[in-house]
Amino acid sequence: MESKLLFMIISMLVVWCSTLVNSQFVGSPPISSPTPAPALEHVNLIQLLSYAGPFHTFLKYLEKTKVLETFQDQANNTEEGITIFAPTDDAFSKLKNPFLSNLIDDQIKSILLFHALSHYYSLSDFKNLSQMSPVITYASGQYTLNFTDVSGDISIDSRWTKTKVSSSVVATDPIAVYEIKNVLLQKAIFGTDIPPTVVPAPAPHIAPSADTPVANVGGSNSSPKSSPSSSCKISNLAILTQLILAIASGVVLMFS
User: Fold this and answer.
1) Of 210, 126, 129, 128, nearest to 168 (Cα)?
2) How do residues 28-43 score in pLDDT, each as one tens digit?
3) Could you tell me the membrane topology recorded for this protein (predicted)?
4) 182 with 189: CB under 8 angstroms?
């Protein structure tokens, strides 16, 4: 009789322990998966060239010749994307007046198309692109560019104009826009009277931001810490187990 009573008490304690243990973990809310980022919208070239840099003259010619629509369609509706070399307003002011005004509309349109490649190229792609020179531009045919990449310093040679990529305005697939300090002109339009080369100013040195994370000096990786809630649950479970064992031992001694 005493053995049966002892067995019943121990069984009840085991069931009670299991119920408490399950309540410690089952009640925890599931970890929600991160919400996927929304798809990027199309880049509006008018807004980009209007506010991202001094490209107002370039934008004016793009709109006047409707080349802007061609570039926008290439960026939005093709898998290839587009790479645009945008001359600054100062680049146009360097040209002798009335330099572009003497050209017909088709020639101006060809010059603008000459400032784009019908494929998206990031800055890291120019190393391979330089080995493929001359590269056919959006103007196609004899309108080609030669690229040189020396440790990330990208030079562009049109055989009439030499310039460098001075900054990256935007470089997110499917569109890349790079700032240049000279208007790219082509021998197919202006003949063989090549102007003297303008040596571009060296690129300014950009100091690292103060917000840049500093590497661990010791080189050791900090081990991940367990969450406070997990430690609390483990501690409560250990105390509960010891309490049940103590009660069971007392019952055994009582009936022995």
Assistant:
1) 126
2) 455 444 444 344 467 8
3) Lipid-anchor; GPI-anchor
4) no
